[in-house]
Structures are given as structure tokens and as C-alpha cells.
């Protein structure tokens, strides 16, 4: 599923028009598809108000109101702009709405909103779409305020009024939807930490734009179905060397659990062999937890003996740690994943990454990415897509920018988004577990980007399954997720044993 900017969505509409799909037809498709999606949240006894603005979103609103009325729902269609603002395709569908015997009600003042909302159970926002620029003006800001305060179900079409489609916008006033029916493709703001909550839950409806006419984009949502199609299979005659020999450089006397969890997650995800390079004093703490791993001396590492390396978790941030990461960067010709403390000490020699020929993977959360780039966390959260792309291109790395929606970026700028997972992952150790899964997937996948994308989904999907099956978001631990991987692999692919 593609993820688009406002401009890319306009280009898709234009391409559809050039292919012969008239605007009124696409609007009919969009409105009917959205209506059929929204009825899943509506009862026949509900009293529904549809707020209709100008532009395509308003035109969709006329189609939605007509479709719901045809289905026997109780609907009031309220036009919130003057008649002269209803133009083009939207005017066509207003005429069809009225010719069908339905009445368009008009907004006149603030008291109207109060009166309409007093007798409504459901509010459907079809006022403004992807063309919003700047803060809301009257009457939109007034209607949004009253709707947000009213005790009713709030639904939205494409994106809630006032929510910017693109990244980079910090301040806005918006309709707070409980559910949004997204038209054709999700916009960037559906995955930003400060804008996604305004969507509520959401899903995408298809409106008939031919895929072959749609301009290509380099962003897409990576889902469980994608994981199923790309998971490596196991040959009946394979052996432990067939599935990757991994090295975990991490852990310390004070933080032994980091390397332990990364190593266990890698083995649970299918790695054939895992060795751990840690402080000698940490071995007694790690070995009882992960008996299948072996241990190697840090000062005599032969990095050429491994198919993949994960480094940085729990190693500390001192000079010795910096030299350890520098050595891994300059002396490995296999995939190298750097996480946690490794990212902190990496900043002083980022330029060395450009010289590597094997894939380099950095897995920061927003705070770590802010440290690497010299930006503030706020700047990272406002524009994660563009900043991640620029960084990945600049240093020739794969960047896994972690968050409620994780953005995986390749050196050529291609991006994937993983939207699985829940607040139960907001615990120490979750990143260590993810690093192990990613290490394993790197060693087993033919595509680095596919392997990283699937690894992120495996991590989040497992957490989701555990919460549905007995755990809560409060008690869930990283070790629970690691142990839950066995059920995930069993259910996602019968070919993996």
C-alpha cells in the first residue's frame, strides 16, 4: 500500500483523469466506498449529520449523504460554505443529491452547530481535505470545536478537517476523529506521532484509479501480508550454517541483559548460530539465559567469520566502546547493524560509513536520531520521512527510525513503514529484541530492505498478538515478545519450522 504526499495524490487524480476517468465518476466511487466503510461503525437507529465543505472532500460528502439516505439511515446534510463555493465535480453531486429528492441544509451561524449536534449521534466530517494550508478559519474552526466537545461518534473522510496531509506542520486545529475512511492511499500525516491520533482508527478504500496510471512513489506500508510473501523458507536438508552465523557485540557487567535479549531474539527468529562478544564479567549473567549462544573475546574478534553483526546494545559510551564500534565499522564486509550505545559513540566518525561496501543498518529512536543529526527531537518528529531519507542517502545506510510508526529507509531513498505494535513496547529491552530479529532477518533474506521491513513487522505483530491473547500493554515485557515469536512464525508461515 503506497503512502503519498498531497502533491502525489493530486498527481494520481490527474493521471486517472487523463486515462478517461471523469472527475464526477471518481467522486462517486470515493463517496460510495467511504459510505460503505463508515456504515460498519453506524447503527440504523443513529441520527447522522454530514458536514459538507467545498472542494473534493465536500463533493464526497454529498455522495456519502445520498448513499446513506438510500440505505435507510437518518441523515442531515449540512453545507457549511456559500453556494458559490460549491464548484466543479462537487456541484455535479450536489445537483444529483437534490434531484434525488433530498434537502441540503445551510450553515448560518454558531447556534446552527449546537442545534444540529443536539439531535445527532454521529458526525461525519467531509469539510476539508488534503488542500488545507494554515489554521482553520470560520466556520470550520467553530464547527470543529463544537464537534470535538459533543458526546457523539466522530467519523472523517480521507483525513480529518484541519489535519495537514504532509509532514512539517507543528501547530494546527483539527477535527478529532474516532475513525477515518482514507481515500485511495494514506497520507504522511497518518504516520506522524503528533498527527496520527487525530485520525483515530483508519482504513483505506479503493476508488478505481488504475494502478498502471498512478505515478510511482517510493513509500509504502509494509504489512503482515508482505511478511508472509517474503519470509525465508527452510529447506528440509538445511543445517545451522544455512541460516546465518551472527555476532552480537554488546552487553557489559552493568547491562548484560541487552546482549542476552538481542542474541535470544536472533535465535528465536531463525539464526543458525549466534556468538556474543561481551565483557568477561558479564558472561555468567548472560549464559544461563541464552544457553545456545557461544562467547568470544572482544579483543581478538575475527569479524570475517560471521554473516551479520549487531553491535552497540549495552556496551556503554566510553572511549573503549567507541573504538569497538569504529573497529566494527572499518573491519566488517558483512551486514552491520548498530543500535543503542553504538549510535551514541558513532557520531564522531559517521563519515566512515560511506566507505563501507556491505549494508550498514542504524536503528535509532527519535532521541538517538536527533543526537546523530544535531537536530532537536521536535524537528525529527515533525519531519521524519524527509530527514530519514536525506540521512540514508547522505551516508549510504539503511535507517530504521523507530516509533509508533517505524520508518525504514534504504540508501536510495526508498521507504517502508511498519505500523504494527502497541504501547506495551514502550519498555526497556524492546529495542534489543528488535535488533536481534533484524540481525536474523538480514542473514536470511535476499533483500536487505525486505528483511528489515519484515523484521520490524514481526516484532510489532508479536506484541499485538500477545496483548490480544492475555497480556496487557502494562505488563508486556521484551522477553515476552521474544518468547512469543514462536507463535508468530508458526501462524504466519507453515513453511517455517
Q: Helix tally?
A: 17
Strand order of the largest sheet: 8-17-16-15-14-13-12-9-10-11
Quickly give the CATH architecture of the largest domain: 3-Layer(aba) Sandwich
User: What Rg, in angstroms, do the CA atoms define?
Assistant: 26 Å
Largest sheet, strands/sense/barrel: 10 strands, mixed
How far is the first residue's CA from the last residue's CA? 29 Å
CATH class of the largest domain: Alpha Beta
The helix-and-strand class reads alpha/beta
Tally the beta strands: 17
CATH topology of the largest domain: UDP-N-acetylmuramoyl-L-alanine:D-glutamate ligase
In percent, how helical is the residue content? 25-40%
Q: Low-confidence runs (pLDDT<50, min 5 residues)?
A: none
State the shape.
elongated
Mean pLDDT: 94
**Estimated share of beta-strand residues:** 5-15%
> What is the domain tally?
2
CATH superfamily annotation of the largest domain: Ribokinase
Provide structural commentary:
There is one protein chain. With 497 residues, the chain is an alpha/beta fold. It folds into 2 domains: 6-217, 3-Layer(aba) Sandwich (Rossmann fold); 224-492, 3-Layer(aba) Sandwich (UDP-N-acetylmuramoyl-L-alanine:D-glutamate ligase), CATH 3.40.1190. The chain contains 17 helices and 17 strands. It has helices spanning 6-18, 23-38, 55-70, 88-99, 110-118, 140-149, 224-230, 256-268, 283-286, 319-331, 341-346, 366-373, 377-382, 384-395, 430-444, 448-468, 478-492; strands at 47-52, 74-79, 104-106, 122-126, 153-157, 179-183, 201-205, 219-221, 245-249, 273-277, 294-296, 308-311, 336-338, 360-362, 398-401, 406-409, 415-418. The longest helix is centred in the C-terminal third of the chain and has 21 residues, at 448-468.
Amino acid at each position: 500500500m503506497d503512502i503519498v504526499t498531497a502533491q502525489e495524490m493530486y498527481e494520481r487524480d490527474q493521471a486517472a483523469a487523463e486515462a478517461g476517468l471523469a472527475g464526477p465518476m471518481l467522486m462517486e466511487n470515493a463517496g460510495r466506498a467511504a459510505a460503505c466503510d463508515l456504515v460498519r461503525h453506524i447503527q440504523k437507529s443513529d441520527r447522522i449529520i454530514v458536514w459538507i465543505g467545498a472542494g473534493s472532500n465536500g463533493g464526497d460528502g454529498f455522495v456519502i449523504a445520498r448513499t446513506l439516505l438510500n440505505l435507510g439511515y437518518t441523515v442531515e446534510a449540512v453545507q457549511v460554505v456559500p453556494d458559490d463555493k460549491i464548484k466543479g465535480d462537487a456541484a455535479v453531486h450536489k445537483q444529483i443529491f437534490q434531484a434525488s429528492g433530498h434537502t441540503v441544509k445551510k450553515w448560518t451561524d454558531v447556534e446552527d452547530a449546537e442545534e444540529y449536534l443536539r439531535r445527532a449521534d454521529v458526525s461525519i466530517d467531509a469539510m476539508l481535505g488534503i488542500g488545507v494550508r494554515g489554521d482553520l478559519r470560520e466556520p470550520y474552526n467553530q464547527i470543529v470545536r463544537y464537534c470535538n466537545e459533543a458526546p457523539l461518534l466522530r467519523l472523517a473522510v480521507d483525513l480529518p478537517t484541519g489535519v495537514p496531509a504532509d509532514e512539517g506542520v507543528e501547530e494546527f486545529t483539527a477535527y478529532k476523529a474516532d475513525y477515518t475512511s482514507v481515500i485511495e492511499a494514506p497520507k504522511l500525516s497518518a504516520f506522524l506521532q503528533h498527527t496520527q491520533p487525530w485520525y483515530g482508527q483508519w482504513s483505506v478504500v479503493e476508488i478505481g484509479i488504475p494502478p498502471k496510471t498512478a505515478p510511482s512513489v517510493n513509500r509504502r506500508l509494509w504489512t503482515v501480508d508482505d511478511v508472509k510473501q517474503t519470509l525465508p523458507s527452510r529447506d528440509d536438508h538445511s543445517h545451522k550454517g544455512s541460516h546465518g552465523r551472527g555476532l552480537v557485540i554488546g552487553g557489559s557487567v552493568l547491562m548484560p541483559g541487552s546482549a542476552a535479549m538481542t542474541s535470544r531474539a536472533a535465535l528465536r527468529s531463525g539464526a543458525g548460530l549466534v556468538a556474543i562478544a561481551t565483557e568477561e564479567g558479564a558472561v555468567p549473567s548472560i549464559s544461563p539465559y541464552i544457553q545456545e549462544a557461544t562467547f568470544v573475546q572482544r579483543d581478538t574478534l575475527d569479524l570475517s567469520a560471521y554473516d551479520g553483526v549487531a553491535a552497540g546494545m549495552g556496551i556503554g559510551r566510553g572511549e573503549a566502546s567507541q573504538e569497538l564500534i569504529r573497529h566494527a565499522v572499518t573491519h566488517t564486509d558483512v551486514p552491520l547493524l548498530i543500535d543503542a550505545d553504538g549510535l551514541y559513540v558513532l557520531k564522531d566518525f559517521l563519515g566512515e560509513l560511506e566507505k563501507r561496501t556491505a549494508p550498514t543498518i542504524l536503528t535509532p529512536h527519535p532521541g538517538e536520531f536527533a543526537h546523530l543529526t544535531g537536530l532537536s527531537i521536535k524537528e525529527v518528529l515533525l519531519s521524519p520521512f524527509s530527514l530519514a531519507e536525506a540521512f540514508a542517502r547522505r551516508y549510504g545506510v539503511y535507517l530504521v527510525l523507530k516509533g509508533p510508526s517505524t520508518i525504514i529507509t534504504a540508501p536510495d531513498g526508498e521507504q517502508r513503514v511498519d505500523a504494527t505494535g502497541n504501547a506495551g513496547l514502550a519498555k526497556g529491552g524492546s529495542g534489543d529484541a528488535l535488533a536481534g530479529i533484524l540481525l536474523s532477518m538480514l542473514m536470511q533474506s535476499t533483500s536487505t530492505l525486505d528483511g528489515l521491513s519484515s523484521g520490524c513487522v514481526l516484532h510489532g505483530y508479536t506484541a499485538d498478538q500477545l496483548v490480544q491473547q492475555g497480556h496487557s500493554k502494562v505488563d508486556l515485557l521484551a522477553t515476552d515478545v521474544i518468547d512469543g515469536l514462536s507463535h508468530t512464525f508458526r501462524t504466519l508461515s507453515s513453511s517455517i519450522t
